[in-house]
Amino acid sequence: MAQAFRSTRVLTPQGLGPATIIVEGETIASVRDWSDVPRDAALTDFGELVVLPGLVDPHVHINDPGRDWEGFSTATRAAAAGGVTTLVDMPLNCVPETIEVAALQAKRAAANGRAHVDWAAWGGVVRGNAKALPELVRAGVAGFKCFLIHSGIEGFAWVTEADLRSALRELRGTGLPLLAHAEVAEPVEKATTALHAAHAMFSTYANYLASRPGAAETDAIALLLRLAEEFEVHVHIVHLSSAEAIPMLAEARARGVPVTVETCAHYLWFAAENIPDGATEYKCAPPIRAEANREALWRALEDGVIDFVVTDHSPCPPAMKRREQGDFERAWGGIASLGLALPVVWTAMQRRGLSLERLAEWMSAGPARLAGLVRKGALEAGRDADFAVFEPEAEWTVTASDLRFRHKLSPYEGARLRGRVRETWLRGTCVFRAGDFPAEPRGREQVRA
Question: Is the CA virtual torsion 124, 126, 129, 130 positive or negative?
């Protein structure tokens, strides 16, 4: 039997308005007028709640297999509670790292029967593995991730320009993107050495911020743009933090360089001026910068220089955050936020007078395009029946009980937000409803089209 889902506010590629979504099996068969419900369809009426396309988060550290920092079960439950129906997992914080096919197969085994939402995997580019990339392409990764600075993981070595050139030769013609953590080491090392020489205390956020200057990002991005243009390979800048890079990105895009850009919810929400000293739950790299920088990121997002918004959910056991010592230098970097991005971004959008329609591009369609997930990202015929039922007017405060990921430590705890996910549907089945998970795990791997 077909299913029909309707609301007076359905967000389709044509805009926000009354509509009925007809679902046959796992697929959207059609999107119709609100009153056009087939006689033989089982109807679910969401009233005035907003029906959004299921969110796609292409920057998540699930850390599975091999580490107890997160895992497929808790990560995908957190995702479902936040309206996210597809995750794309980063290749570095698992053991083994996803830099060869055997590691990808280990990840698939770890996910089997444990994922509450769909997922895909990025492969890794590290020093010396360029010849392994074609096999990973054939095995179905969505693209590749590299670091231009130490990743924090010894088994995921950062790459030089020579390594990038070797990798790009292998990727040319595949259509797959190279994702890059765009910081280079020299400005960071220089700034950190100067801070140590001055006996600076790394219990202050200001000193941590000074240790990761914007020049580390701009220098890295200049290199990546030059190589993207030379090799004609799609390069994607992950977690853009520094607004200093926006002019060069805008200029490169205007002349047709194949580059896309993401930023993170935490760069759009927090500002350095408001981060307490010792509050290491705010540590990430690149760092959260000043309020003026945050506003420049928002302008770039509105103008299309930044393509979309991700979480970069990067959790760790609480002890690794060194919260008691307040040591920003030695604390593990990463913001735990999976499941919170939709209300965080929507709350900030309302403050700026931005319309709900832009959420679909920034948090669903754009990320799906990056990962080549042609069945995800929009409420239209032929796509998977993935959607979130969202109450944009709801007001609430984040507590530890709202953190569905494994380790309950996040700088968002205590935030006052607007908008709450009431239900999440994955391929025509409800996987989250009002705080509960009514379905057994049914997520499966999505292979790039």
Answer: positive
